[in-house]
Amino acid sequence: MTDQDLRDLADDYGVPKKVLVEWCDSVGGDPEDFQDAFMGIGTTGRDWVEEYFYETGQIPDNIPDVLKYHIDWDGVWREFTMEGYFTIRHDGDAYIFGPY
């Protein structure tokens, strides 16, 4: 794959080319598989996983504050990393990847 192909693919995915190349190097993956592994962008993995649970409705909007503020989101992210999720940091953002 040429450098221009990688740039075009990164543009299609809406990520910097550096992130695409680092993902390929990290997992030994084909750039074409990137879309299957890319989960989104957050400030940290912990913040992303919290947003994920709320956005997918797995945490109801009406959860009482006494419960909401005691969820160990760092621990939840740690569990995700044990399942193969990881981040690539670039320009202050955390690009989140899952197993594919």
Q: Report the structural category.
A: alpha+beta
Q: What is the terminal separation in angstroms?
A: 21 Å
* Low-pLDDT runs: none
Number of structurally distinct domains: 1
- Tell me the total number of β-strands: 3
Oligomer: single chain
Walk me through this protein's architecture:
Strand 2 (86-90) and strand 3 (93-97) form a beta hairpin. The protein is elongated and about 55 Å long. The protein has helices spanning 3-13, 17-27, 34-37, 45-55, 65-68, 73-82, and strands spanning 38-42, 86-90, 93-97. The longest helix has 11 residues, at 3-13. With 100 residues, the chain is an alpha+beta fold. Helix 1 (3-13) crosses helix 2. It contains six helices and three strands; from the N terminus they run αααβαααββ. 51% of the residues lie in helices and 15% in strands. It has one domain (3-97). The protein has a three-stranded antiparallel beta sheet, sandwiched between helices. The two termini are 21 Å apart.
Write a brief structural summary.
The protein is an alpha+beta fold and 100 residues long. It contains six helices and three strands; from the N terminus they run H-H-H-E-H-H-H-E-E.
